[in-house]
Amino acid sequence: MTKTALITGITGQDGYYLSHLLLNRGYRVVGLVPPHRQANLAKLGTLAHQVEIYTVDLRDTLALLTAVEQLRPQEIYNLAAPSFVPDSWNDPLGTLDLITGTATRLLEAVRQVGLSTRFYQASSSEMFGDVDRSPQDEETPFRPKNPYAAAKLHAHWTMVHHRQRYGLFACSGILYNHESPLRAPQFVPRKISLAAASIKLGLTDTLEMGNLDAKRDWGFAGDHVEAMWRMLQVDEPEEYVIGTGKLHSVRELVSAAFECVDLDWTRHVVINTDLLRPDEHFQLVANPTKAKNKLGWQPQVSFEELVQKMVQTDLERLQSGAIAKRAP
User: Fold this and answer.
1) From CA 315, how far away is CA 317, in angstroms rounded?
2) Alpha carbon distance 175, 81 (integer Å)
3) Each residue of 254-294: pLDDT tens digit?
4) What pLDDT does 327 receive?
5) SS3 for 220?
């Protein structure tokens, strides 16, 4: 029997890679897309013709209940969230409703319809926030530092409570930074890859950066969605920390990107103090041992391969005219 998987946030980076993975495994993939997000379907490229789109307001409890009742999915992947964390300060309540509200409404729908649907909640390393230990694992205390992280934590506990109280198969992946050529340019890795490609082609000459010493655990989005799927294939629902377990500085990222196009980054990077963030002192790095032992998961794409993939893709896009030839 063909499995049906519902995905919220299907038009985002993770939604794309997860759809690709599920389609390759023979799933029927249905994206729950709000009316105002229909224009974003273009981001799915050729996948837009392979997935089904169900238009629904994620804030509408009855509409989501109807969707779950009609589609009767074997799996739900709740990826709905604002893609850019700093934006959550501009609309804390909207962020809370999109993240926690959607998770709660979907879990309630599964419970009320009486399905044995397996539910994945996209949690985030941002929930760890102001950490006092490194690396972090599933037992590390949560200390969120922004509205996005707080909303993710609320959704995370809502999922846990539905599992504990109602016996739902509900789990979450606490994902660390994961990137790809699909990232928007406001994200640091994509900003850097696009700049390196643009400078190589003579379209611009400088890249403005903030703190080059900031460090992150950067992985490939395609690897991370593989972990999501694996979480729903095991016997018991649990939480898993998903990351590479390796820290890299922004300086290393810049150096690797410019090396891909045979350029000396020190000749092109300018420090702009306005880009410095006040919360760069903490170090979020995963201890993915549990995922490796219980899911058989580990990253396949290295940091260097990820950067190469992003820079090469941006070079090709700029040369073909797929993206505008202007300074990033």
Assistant:
1) 5
2) 13
3) 999 999 999 999 999 999 887 776 655 568 999 999 999 99
4) 41
5) strand
124 is catalytic: yes
For 193, the token pair is 């890859």
Let me know if 43 is exposed, middle or buried by CB neighbors in 10 A (0-12, 13-18, 19+): middle
- Strand partners of residue 33: 55
| pLDDT of 22 above 90 | yes
Candidate list 16, 27, 88, 126, residue with the active-site label: 126
139 to each of 76, 128, 244, 287, 290, how far by Cα in Å? 25, 10, 18, 11, 11
User: What is the model's pLDDT at position 93?
Assistant: 87
Enter the tokens of residue 306: 């990820």
Q: Which of 88, 124, 172, 180 is catalytic?
A: 124
The structure tokens 């490609």 sit at 197
Instruction: Please give the helix or strand (H or E) that residue 72 lies within, else none.
Output: none
| Structure tokens given for 270 | 């300018």
Across 173-183, average pLDDT = 96
Note the pTM of the prediction, 2 decimals: 0.94
CA angle 187, 193, 197 (to 5 degrees): 140
What's the whole-number mean pLDDT along residues 85-96? 81
pLDDT-derived band at 158 (thresholds 50, 70, 90) equals: very high
Give the integer Cα–Cα distance in Å for 190 and 266. Answer: 18
CA dihedral 176, 187, 302, 236 (to 10 degrees): 30
Q: Which helix (H) or strand (E) holds 54?
A: strand 52-55
- Report DSSP letters for 14-45, one per residue: HHHHHHHHHHHTT-EEEEEE-GGGGGGGGGGG
DSSP 209: E
Instruction: Take residue 210 and report the two structure tokens written for it.
Output: 């903030």
Of the candidates 148, 172, 193, 198, the residue annotated as catalytic is 148
148 is a catalytic site residue: yes
Check residue 328 and give its pLDDT. 37
